[in-house]
Specification:
Shape: globular
Distance between the termini: 15 Å
Oligomer: single chain
Number of strands: 18
Number of helices: 2
Helix content: under 10%
C-alpha cells in the first residue's frame, strides 16, 4: 500500500492519512496469496516522510462481487492525550468503490480520530473524508467543496467528542447509505444518528452507483523509529476494557439494514501491537497498546 501527498481541490496541500487498507492488492503482488497478513506498513510517498501505518479491520472477502449501499455501526470513543506530531489513532468506516487497481479507488471515510498535526491538539475529533481518485485529491471535513453539511446539523465534522472512561463509555453511531442522489451521512453521540450531510453523486464516477467494499476497524500512524500509538482503547480485544464496534449491519438498495450472515475476514497488519476479536452478534472488539516501530 502506497501513500501519497494529496492536494485538495482548493489547492491546499495536505498529507493524506487513514488510507483504505487494501490487503488484497498486497496479496495479489505477493507469492503467498494468504489471508494472513502480518507486519504490513505503509510508507509515505516516494519522497518518504517516514510514516508507518497499522490496521486492525474487518474487510469483505476479495472479489466476492457483492455490492453495498450503506452501513450502520457504533464505535466506542477514546482519548489518547500522549500522541505527538505526525501520529494518528482512529476508529473508521471505509466506504469504497475499487475497480482495477488502487489508483482508481473512490472512497468515503467516517469515524473518530486523534490527529495532533491536523488540529493542533490531542483531543478526539469526529471526522469525514472523501476522495474520487485514489487519494490524489479530496479532503477532510469541510476543508474543500464536497461534503455538504445540512443546516443546523447536530454534529459537525471536526467537532471534539466526549471520550470513554472506566465509569462510562461514549459511543459514536454512524449510518451511511446511498439513495438515488447521494451518499447520506447520519451520526450521533450517545444518541440515535441524525442526518448531518451528504456527498452528491457528481463527486464520483463509480461510487455514485454503489460501493464494492465497506470495512470497519482501527488505524494508527506514526513516524518511523517512534513507537506506534495505542489503537482503540489501548487494550487488546480479550480485555474487558477493549474498544468495541457494535450494531453492525449493511444497508440494501432500498435503505433496509440487514445482518452480515457470511464470514467477514479480519486483517491485522502487525499482531505484535494490535489485534481484533471475533465478529459475533453484530459486533467485535479491536485495538492494542501500540509500541511497534519500523
Amino acid at each position: 500500500m502506497r501513500m501519497q501527498k494529496s492536494v485538495c481541490s482548493n489547492g491546499q496541500k495536505l498529507i493524506m492519512s487513514e488510507f483504505y487498507p487494501d490487503f488484497y492488492e498486497q496479496m495479489e503482488r505477493s507469492s503467498n496469496n494468504s489471508l494472513t497478513v502480518t507486519n504490513t506498513s505503509c510508507i509515505q510517498d516516494d519522497q518518504s516522510d517516514g510514516l508507518s501505518s497499522y490496521y486492525a479491520v474487518y474487510q469483505p472477502a476479495y472479489k466476492t462481487q457483492k455490492t453495498y449501499y450503506g452501513t450502520t455501526a457504533a464505535f466506542d470513543i477514546y482519548d489518547h492525550a500522549n500522541l505527538v506530531k505526525d501520529q494518528i489513532t482512529s476508529g473508521i468506516i471505509w466506504v469504497v468503490n475499487k475497480q482495477e487497481n488502487y489508483d482508481n479507488i473512490e472512497a468515503i471515510h467516517v469515524g473518530w480520530h486523534v490527529y495532533p498535526s491536523r488540529y493542533n491538539d490531542t483531543k478526539t475529533h469526529f471526522f469525514v473524508y472523501w476522495t474520487p481518485d485514489g487519494y490524489k485529491t479530496g479532503c477532510y471535513n469541510t476543508d474543500c467543496p464536497g461534503f455538504e453539511l445540512i443546516q443546523n446539523a447536530q454534529l459537525v465534522p471536526g467537532s471534539v467528542l466526549p471520550t470513554s472512561t472506566a465509569q462510562q463509555r461514549h459511543t459514536l453511531t454512524i449510518e451511511i447509505y446511498k439513495d438515488s442522489d447521494a451518499w447520506n451521512l447520519y451520526a450521533g453521540v450517545d444518541s440515535p444518528a441524525n442526518k448531518i450531510g451528504q456527498w452528491h453523486n457528481s463527486l464520483f464516477k463509480n461510487l455514485q452507483d454503489v460501493a464494492t467494499d465497506i470495512s470497519f476497524g482501527g488505524y494508527t500512524e506514526s513516524p518511523n523509529k517512534i513507537l506506534s500509538p495505542p489503537m482503540g482503547s489501548g487494550y487488546l480485544p480479550d480485555s474487558i476494557a477493549a474498544a468495541s464496534v457494535k450494531y453492525i449491519q449493511y444497508i440494501d438498495e432500498k435503505g433496509r439494514p440487514y445482518d452480515i450472515t457470511w464470514e467477514l475476514p479480519s486483517h491485522v497488519s502487525d499482531p505484535r501491537c494490535y489485534s481484533i476479536g471475533s465478529f459475533e452478534n453484530r459486533q467485535f472488539t479491536y485495538g492494542g497498546p501500540g509500541g511497534c516501530t519500523n
